[in-house]
Amino acid sequence: MDKRLIEIRTALMKGAAPAVRELVSACLDKGIPPDRILEEGMVSAMAIIGERFKRDEIYMPEVMIAARAMNAGLEVLEPALVQSGAKPRGKVLLASVRADLHDIGKNMVAMMFRGAGYSVVDLGVDVHEDLILEAIAEHEPDVVGLSSLLTTTLPNMKKTVETLEKADLRGRVIIMVGGAPVTPEFAEGIGADGYAPDSASAVERAAELLAARGQGLA
Ligand code: B1M
Q1: What is the mean pLDDT of residues 95-107?
Q2: What's the CA-to-centroid distance between 215 and ligand 1, angstroms?
């Protein structure tokens, strides 16, 4: 692997947010493709952090500072992935479901959508289903994307889909779900319109679903 990407991975695992910012910026200046910086330098670091956390080799504070460094790197990387001046291809509302504080995956999904020319409204983490309803009324998105990283918050994902169903919004918005514990079977079981295993395929799946509704601008 490129030495500079290894440096990003090391800095990210140490939680050195300013160093991650600088290194990502330097890699972009050197012309290293943003998707390589993301996957090889950053996502690989979070995977190692996750393994170490599982084996009790590191604890919550270390995971939190690594996550903060990851999000710092994502901020620097995002403009490089976003097409300038492109007409929005649709509007996407994103949220980590109620009681779920994980946001790295959701932030990557947001970044990929922005990079593909969608406008994104990101409601953040621990978002109550009622707040999602209010946000739909305010922003009128084409797609609502829900993220969950905990088996204990999967029921809240289901509850959110039920809430949108009760509010009669099923025909108006496409509901997409994702996150590590979410499976295609779970997604189908709770009545989501779409599932994606990663951020890049989330964009592809949304485009397919929008096209199927005659809304795609691709
Ligand atoms: Co937590 N955590 N965590 N954690 N954490 C996991 C998820 C866990 C698997 C770790 C473990 O035990 N090995 C475990 C869950 C176990 C389970 O439920 N089965 C766990 C736990 C238990 C917890 C706490 C309960 C720990 C505790 O308090 N004892 C606690 C819960 C807090 C809460 O949410 N209420 C907790 C807290 C935290 C931190 C706050 C410290 C931090 C989050 C910081 C942050 O996000 N800002 C954290 C982290 C960082 C992790 C790990 C290490 C990394 C998660 C991550 O960012 N992955 C994680 C272990 C792991 O995953 N290996 C772990 C990288 C990210 C790029 O992947 O989010 O999967 P991911 O996103 C992917 C896809 O899933 C997909 O695209 C993304 C990119 O390709 N995707 C979508 C995501 N959303 C999508 C939406 C879509 C489509 C695709 O459509 C809309």
Answers
A1: 96
A2: 32
